[in-house]
Amino acid sequence: MRTAAAVALSLALAAGLACGPARFVDVRVDMPGVSPFPAGSFDEVAVADFREEAPVDGLAAGRALADYLAREIDLAFKGTVTRVAAPEEALAARGGRVLVVSGEVRLATEVRKALDKRDLPVDGPFKAAERGVLERRRWTMTVDLAIRSAADGTTLYRREYREDRDYTDLEKPADFALSELSARVRARLLPVLLGTTTIETRTLIAR
Questions:
Q1: Cβ-count burial of 181 within 10 angstroms (0-12 exposed, 13-18 middle, 19+ buried)?
Q2: How far is CA 78 from CA 45, 95, 106, in A?
Q3: Of residues 69, 128, 125, 75, the one with CA closest to residue 100
Q4: I need a surface site. Which of 90, 162, 169, 175 has the fewest CB within 10 A?
Q5: Tens digit of each residue's pLDDT (9 = 90 or more) over 122-178
Q6: Are 163 and 117 in contact (CB under 8 A)?
Q7: What is the spatial distance between Cα 194 and Cα 196, in angstroms, rounded to a whole number?
Q8: pTM of the full structure
Q9: What is the pLDDT of residues 96-111, one digit of tens each?
Q10: CA 107 from chain center: how many Å?
Q11: Nearest alpha-carbon partner for 149 in 88, 91, 72
């Protein structure tokens, strides 16, 4: 499918070039996901709590991330999705057609300052003190994710995801940032796990 889409795109580009003056048009195309797990090779996905390297006070990020991913996988997967407290539980109790999703998560924050370019002085570079300063709170989620076979514990896929989100509201709560960053991790994980389609932008040349 990806090859067919690429051929169609190439033909459209060639046609545009052959017709003289052209303009560029961005289009959004559904592209098939590529998964390292063949379709039908597993019947169940078990999602375990993610370990936390540096817990945020009052927030169980590892449990919340696992809960969210389990719900989202369940919406897209026709098989069974289960929640377990630890990956060892799934590895010990289930057979070979089960994938175990687990890993580690770290949620960190910092306040960053930057010059407001809308308020730069007009009479030279020596009045930096008069320049406006913007403060933003950056939340960063780092997820070391592993997908293993419950049959023998073999790691079939492993990758580190890092997602950042800046907020002008310095008091933005951690759980709000966790929700938004978890959605980004989900968007990158599902095409790998289930081969779901992704929406990509392509540029066409039109007359």
A1: buried
A2: 10, 18, 30
A3: 69
A4: 169
A5: 555 545 554 567 888 899 999 999 999 998 889 999 999 999 999 888 887 888 999
A6: no
A7: 5
A8: 0.70
A9: 789 999 999 999 989 8
A10: 14
A11: 91
